């Protein structure tokens, strides 16, 4: 297999010239360079993908630097909005899972491998637990439990050290009857909830690291609830619907999230195309339609 040599670094001026040479219209070069000083060229040029010609690296006629920048800014603000929702969902999930597990199996029930399903790798899980404690031993609540309780951490404490991915795996490794009990709080099946938590982890990573949502396909497809009038795919809009299912309050969803999303879309409507995010024509109806009837 042929391996290409790594490219030499380019100055900001050279980066801008590459963009111009590919057919992009730049009205203000000074401002464009200022943007490239703030946004990594490699990251920024990914937002040119919808404007690329199919047969080469040139851009379609009429492609403007400012348009691409506005799309980037829309994407950045969308990530921030989605992350605020994810945090709310994640906090509630930690609370519900820890509460249920503690009351069924006891404060230290997670230490016993028999309290999980057959496919749970308990040795690997406990290695993750010990590593999380070690990596966070400077935190006051961790030091407190090491000094006062001999290093024993009840589930409602240790779960605060779990990443979203570890929280998702913890749920998926629970006994089926336990998964079903927790999934009833989301008015869905345990299989759907397991799918959504995996996808929530993916979306959280995208938003936390400002990975591009616009004109992108996310790796995992969220499960579609039975009788829901739309089949979820792997586009950002489908992940937004998934957040709606996990939010657990149609009233708060409509009062908090939907107005902010509409305002963001209105602000950037001259520059973005909603189909590049997978939005169908009836997107607002789907977002506002009550799920928890």
Please tell me about this protein's structure.
With 293 residues, the protein is mainly alpha-helical. It has one domain (73-288). The protein has helices spanning 12-21, 29-38, 41-45, 65-105, 122-135, 140-148, 155-158, 164-172, 176-183, 190-208, 236-247, 250-267, 283-288. α4 (65-105) packs parallel to α11, α4 runs antiparallel to α12 and α8 runs antiparallel to α10 (190-208).
Kindly summarize this structure in a few lines.
By secondary structure, the protein is mostly helical.
What spatial form do the alpha-carbon principal axes imply? globular
- Poorly predicted regions are none
The topology string of helices and strands comes to HHHHHHHHHHHHH
Q: What is the count of structural domains? A: 1
Number of helices: 13
Structural class by sheet pairing and helices? mainly alpha
Task: Summarize the main sheet.
Answer: none
Radius of gyration, CA atoms, in whole angstroms: 23 Å
Number of separate strands: 0
Distance between the termini: 57 Å
Would you tell me the overall average pLDDT?
A: 94
Question: How much beta, percentage-wise?
Answer: under 5%
Helix residue percentage:
55-70%
């Amino acid at each position: 297999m042929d391996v290409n040599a790594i490219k030499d670094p380019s100055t900001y001026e050279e980066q801008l010239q590459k963009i111009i040479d590919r057919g992009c219209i730049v009205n203000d070069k000074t401002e464009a360079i200022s943007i490239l000083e703030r946004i990594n060229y490699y990251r920024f040029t990914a937002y040119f993908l919808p404007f690329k010609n199919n047969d080469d690296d040139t851009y379609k006629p009429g492609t403007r630097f400012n348009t691409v920048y506005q799309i980037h800014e829309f994407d950045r603000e969308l990530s921030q909005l989605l992350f605020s929702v994810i945090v709310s969902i994640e906090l509630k999930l930690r609370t519900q899972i820890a509460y249920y597990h503690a009351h069924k199996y006891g404060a230290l029930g997670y230490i016993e491998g028999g309290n999980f399903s057959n496919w749970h790798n308990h040795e690997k899980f406990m290695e993750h637990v010990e590593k999380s404690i070690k990596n966070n031993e400077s935190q006051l609540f961790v030091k407190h439990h090491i000094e006062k309780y001999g290093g024993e951490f009840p589930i409602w404490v240790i779960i605060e050290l779990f990443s979203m991915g570890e929280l998702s795996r913890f749920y998926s490794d629970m006994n089926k009857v336990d998964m079903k009990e927790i999934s009833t709080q989301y008015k869905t099946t345990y299989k759907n909830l397991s799918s959504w938590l995996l996808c929530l982890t993916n979306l959280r990573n995208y938003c936390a690291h400002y990975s591009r949502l616009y004109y992108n396909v996310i790796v995992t497809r969220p499960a579609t609830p039975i009788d829901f009038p739309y089949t979820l795919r792997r586009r950002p809009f489908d992940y937004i619907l998934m957040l709606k299912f996990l939010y657990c309050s149609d009233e708060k969803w409509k009062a908090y999230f939907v107005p902010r999303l509409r305002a963001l879309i209105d602000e950037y409507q001259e520059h973005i195309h909603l189909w590049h995010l997978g939005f169908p024509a009836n997107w607002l109806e789907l977002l506002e339609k009550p799920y928890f009837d």
